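re: ur question from the group chat, yeah i did fold both. here u go
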Amino acid sequence: MLVYGPVPSRRLGHSLGIDLIPLKICSYDCIYCQLGRTTDKTIKRREYAAADDILADLQQVLTTGAKPDYITLAGSGEPTLNSMIGEVVARIKQLTDIPVVILTNGSLFWQPEVRQACLQADIIAPSLDAADEKTFHRINLPHPDVTFENMTRGLIDLRREYRGEIWLEILLLKGINDSLKAAEDFKYWIEQIKPDKVQLNTSVRPGTKLEILRLSQDELETIRDYIGGKTEIIATISPVHNKQEHTADQDHVLDMIRRRPCTLEDVANGLNLHRNSALKYLSDLERQGKIQYREHQGSRFYQAYS
């Protein structure tokens, strides 16, 4: 299935995801990525998943599952690498009135065809993890053709052409991009990009580098207050209460964990399961050798064996 969820999202409540890209085909190789190292770093766009297949899966899920708050075009890599993303967005909007979000690393908007393909989405949620070239390379490890200059220019041009909402995510890592000097530089770029929201995040799940550390709530609040404006903190998942029952089984749990490392609470909230039921499925999958857990900054994350 190319459609997964709904899953709990810190930004989008219950989000129904659409996987436009195979695992770890991306223009970046971010040190905090919860999906592991990029295996194909590229900016070449092609039809990685067919629009007909995506829409068939989506229609099936919408007729059998709980109604999500948003439909999110994301993936196991960078979704704008799929050359059919514009057609997918247009056809989703013919099928349902659920808002469509493009969750992107923001690296390719310097290409006019990428901006044009995304204009029908209700929300575009790009990332900006660095405010200078050196930090950009340290955190995002971009494809050689993606420079800090063309990445930021692309986000500025997107704002000029796009009439929907832009929710800019800034992910902060302790000792890397969390200084007040970095906050001042971020503030400059925010003024250029003019997003509708600025959402501060920090590394919650295990990334590709073990040494990366998340910020505390107090540290996030200090940076939020310094940046000011429309800045909010999204680093903690609020409980999401779904009004509809969602029937899930062990296969649904495994599919969710294959997408990203999850805590017990992630599984319970995302699949609308009682905590005990979620724990039973996780324990069964662990005994079967299909998943393992990893302790990370005081939390237990379950992840699938490769």
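okk and heres the other one u asked abt
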Amino acid sequence: MYVVLFVASVLALLYGLTLLVMARVIFRQLFGRTFHTLEYSRQRCLETGEFDPALEELPWEKVSVFSPKRNAAVAVYALPAQKSAGDGTVIVLHGLTWTHYGSFKYARAFIERNWNAVLVDMSGHGASEKGTIPVPSYGYFEKYDLDAVLDWVLARFPEKPFVLIGESLGAATALQYAPLGAPPGAGKETWKIQGIIADCPYSSMADAVDARSSYLRIPFFFARPARKLVSFVIRHTRGYALEDASPLAGALSSPVPVLLIHGDADDYVPAELSRRIAEKRKERGAGPVSLVLIHGAPHAKSIITDSETWFKAAFEFIGRECGLACQK
């Protein structure tokens, strides 16, 4: 009997220690990331062909927009349409650890089509300040920073319809912002945004962590409790849980048209998470939604893998669902 109890105690201790190690690994992967500098991201985008330096020579306006929620300044780069009458305004949000240099590849085609362009360094990234709320919060608090940016954009480009484009963290932020920018029950004339293009978002951070654990072949009896432990810790130290950072919940709480684009070779944030958002939104009848999968594209590389398909889907969506022109 004593032997059985001893063995059971040792096994329980080993399980507990392993669980703590797993939770620490998950926590470090989520919140121990190194944010790249502006110069590093610029150089990498040049090397990969994602950034045309000629775009940098255009008359960009750099401003700092104060975010009351985070008590910090957000760096915004605005380019007025180069002709007298731009058709709309595109606002682009980059992914985790990156900067606005990663957004040029999305904005370029809109600039060519005479749209105003607005690029943002997400909070704590690039030239933006971290503020009083730790970053990243995976869209949960970033959506309030985006709301401050939208207010500035509305004043800078009045009467120019706005379309949000986000990549990964930026996509998740855009979707979580949807109920603020286009609230349910509000008339379209009051919306701050007319459409969202979300490239490789997660349905929630809890789902993203589970998917990553599955990819790493971490047994569920370690992965799920470790994720719950991390969620418990950040709920009590940062004011939200992993389940609260939910683009799916945002997509279900706003009628704004949504286009989801995802690479089918994404093993970091699987395309299944975008498919889940699309299916749930259709089931709920929350608003227009489309899903486009880019064959062979890894995480955040859909537009690089097949830019023709990416922009064709984007411009058709903007014309069909948002009623905006995207002609050269």
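fwiw on the second one: Residues 2-31 form the longest helix (30 residues). The radius of gyration is 21 Å. idk if thats what u expected
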